[in-house]
Amino acid sequence: MRKKTISNILMGIIVVLCVSICFLIFCIVRRPRYIETADLESAIITENPGDFNLAGTIATNNDVLELPDVDNTPTQEETSAAPMQGKTSTRVNIRNAPSEDGKVLETVDADTTFDIIEVLDVGWTHILYNGEDAYISSAYVIITSE
User: Fold this and answer.
1) CA 136, CA 124: separation in Å to the nearest integer?
2) Would you say 72 and 92 are in contact if contact means Cβ atoms under 8 Å apart?
3) How does pLDDT run across 59-98, given as a tens digit for each residue?
4) What is the pTM of this model?
5) Of 46, 48, 62, 70, nearest to 123 (Cα)?
6) CB distance 115 to 133 below 8 Å
């Protein structure tokens, strides 16, 4: 074959690869950022603590935000209520500590249910799984009852 023919074939391959890479990047950027469920039950999806937007809050004089006073003392109703229930949105690791460095106790499939003890501010959810305290990333938790 002539050098010009080989050069044209290689250039065509490079162009096809570049177009393919651009298409893949476009698909990744446009993918949905939410969880779609086929369940007919109502589910509450909580946000990660880092996702809060304070731009929509109302500022007072001198642009100082005043937060409402919150009484963190649980009421009789809260202490006797049943624990929150949750389920996983995808295949996920259950860990012994609220960190990616925590030991993986088990890897579970989507729709695995558990009792929620507490939703932590650091992006992790404290759960009761198989009678043990464990942690799961809040990004993969769907709260099914409160």
Assistant:
1) 6
2) no
3) 444 555 565 665 555 554 444 456 788 888 889 999 999 9
4) 0.45
5) 48
6) no
